[in-house]
Amino acid sequence: MKDSTIVRIRTIWQTFDMALNIPAIDKQHVWLIAMIVELEDDLESADPVSMENNFTRTLTRALDYTIEHFSLEEKVLESINYQKLGQHRIQHSRFIAVLRRRARERVTGDYKKAALNLLRNLRTWLFQHILSEDRAYLDAVQMHYEEIKDWMNSHFANSPHSDEVEELYRRVTNSSETRKEFEFQTIGEDNLKIISELWFRYKLKTGIAIVDMQHLWLLQLLVRTEKLHRQRLKQEIKTEVLGSRIKEALTATIDYIKEHFSTEEAIMRRFNFHDTNSHIKQHRNFNGIINDLIQRSRNDDTDAISKLLQDLKDWLISHIAVEDKKLFYFFRSRLGEVNEYVRELNQQGKIHIWKDAVSIYRLLVEYEETPSLKA
User: Fold this and answer.
1) Shortest CA distance to 324 belongs to which of 205, 200, 222, 202?
2) For residue 134, is it within any domain?
3) Cβ atoms within 10 Å, residue 183
4) 242-296: per-residue pLDDT in tens?
5) Residue closest to 217 by CA, chosen among 320, 326, 331
6) Does residue 198 share a domain with residue 172?
7) In the prediction, which pLDDT does 140 show?
8) 339 is in which domain, residue-wise?
9) Within a 13 Å sphere around the CA of 245, how many CA atoms are in the beta-carbon half?
10) Helix %, strand %, coil % for the chain, to 5?
11) What is the pTM of this model?
12) Rounded CA gap, 20 and 69, in Å?
């Protein structure tokens, strides 16, 4: 498996905090993430001829995963008399039925559609079942873990895929490789986790791609600026060096806020959003916080900067969570037109779409969503 694929698997694993700290189960969950990432790569790069082989390979591996993982998980839950075992089994059965429906799609010959549907199903299972239902049994399993860990590990070792999955898990969780190859090196692993927590805690997705992408980039800039400011307060870096970095970070944040507001306002005007004037007025009112922050940074007023940075973040989060979500309900039937207009703005150099911003968007938004093709 390519190093770049391992890096993407690791990023998903760490950013969404997927480890249950039950090795046999964690290894199989990493195996599922690997299937998803490899299928994504196939869909991006494969020609129609090879799509059949790629789809068949992933579907076969997904079915192998269900046989091995569901068997292990259900035996574990049965051994500890888990009260919701029946519900868990039903969900497993439903997922197997979904994979069988995907298998039947092969007869249509449209392997790209079948692969997109399979990718949607695997992502949905990863985020709705593993991050929710599997976490629900975690405390119960950990109470009995010492009693059952030996036979769990033995069960895993007897799998025909155990060597492959063991090596995959080792590479994904290897700490030295994580530091060297982390996909978002310019952003930072800790910063990415904070961005992820804010994004999901406050449910900030609007459903408009460029708006969500810019919101994520703004969060990144704010998190980075706050971190530099805290380092300065703790005197972790020389004051003169850090002072320059903070000013650069503040300038970048403020400039991007202005660009973001300009982008939103251009879209609202182009498509005659009914509440454009009120929305723009809120943007203008926010300029007061920005101007105050600029002045305080010039005066090197550290206490005021701390408060203003928090005010800045609070305002943006509340504005996104309430006002910007109204945009989606107005534009939801015209998202294709909005995306086309955004491409025009980008070509004209009126907006900037950074590579890392796209990467964050793909990680945090596309993994919430499913491809547009229906089952």
Assistant:
1) 205
2) yes
3) 19
4) 677 888 888 888 889 999 999 999 999 999 999 999 999 999 988 888 887 777 7
5) 320
6) no
7) 94
8) 189-364
9) 16
10) 80, 0, 20
11) 0.68
12) 14
